[in-house]
Give the backbone structure.
Amino acid sequence: MPESMPESTNKSSNTVLWVIGGLAAFVVFGFLLLTVPALFLIARSEPRIEAVNVTPGSVNTSAQAVALPTPRVIVATPEGGVDYETAVFANIYEQVNPSVVNVTVLGTVQSNLSDEFTPRGVDPDDFVVISTGSGFVWDAEGHIVTNNHVVEGAEQVQVTFEDGAVAVAEVVGTDVDSDLAALRINPEGYRLAPVVRASLDDVHVGMRVVAIGNPFGLEGTLTSGIVSAIGRSIPARGGFSIPDSIQTDAAINPGNSGGPLLNERGELIGVNAQIRSDVRSNSGVGFAIPVNIVERVVPALIRSGKYAHSYMGVSGGTLSPICADALGVPKTLRGALVIDVLPRTPADAAGLRGGTEAAETEYPSICPDRAGGDVIVAIEGEPVTKFDDVLSYLQRNTSPGDTVSLSIWRNGQTEEVELTLAPRPENATP
């Protein structure tokens, strides 16, 4: 088992039934339920069964062929009684909304509906709208960033710009473990304004943020809020965690997935990806994939179609003081507890040890049932207080082939271990 928090990830799909033109048309799209019953991917907004005419490679020739970088938002001194916050948000929207696109996922009627439920007047081989999400312009070469779960399984994708221009998009790369995808359109004839990216180091709790996207298919919607927390770990569809994620109370709803989360300078700080809600709509708890992960993953997706995650080959969790007695460690010890080490992995080659001795505890839901595993207390000199610290460091700073130094607590003393990272196997599961 690779690196993961000791939480179980529950997955389910929800089926949405739609009736069109008196004929029942069933379209399956959904929200992926992960980790807890109320944590959902939010990609797919309300589907519509309607035929569309798609011409691959078509462009909007009426638009001026210009590629412009998006300037940082400069807020002038408010005039006429306009408050500062209004001026900030208005400027962000004016300058960044042209960079945000509506991502429409298309499929064939034949692949999504049985013959008896094909809507009247719709050819079974026609493309139909399955769902919608959001995305944003990455560069002047026509690359668009969105979530992997927005376009996963799509037969055809098109993007719609603020001015109504529509382009057919090719999926050039996807990564399920970071939930990111890169699309590409023919840039000829389009006015492309790449979103400016901020540094995650500048993101802090309490800062004002805005989200722009297409909730429920409502294009060009701006919502605002603050950063509620940083350093959250959220699950990806493959079961691995996405570390350093940003929690926000800006309204995030189905259809917002893949759109940008922006600071008050109009710079990208994250890609909206998930919500936690019992009703699958905004409850003030949304999550965005952090910009530092986006900047590492997206160029690789554009370059090679995939991203290689660093891999150690361990499973474990955060060491809790309540488990100290059962595990035979000091109550003051903090770090990432190694529970299992997979054979023929970097961790195995480096000599890391998992738990081998039975451990009895009054808290089986918190404490592992095996003692004797190593405790990672630092990585490259940076203190580790929880398991996510290890995942975050690997994601932020390393690539397969890099060697990292681990400080581990073993048998009552601290030891240094050198570990050379490998690419995460495609069939790896937590």
Q: What stands out?
A: The mean pLDDT is 82.
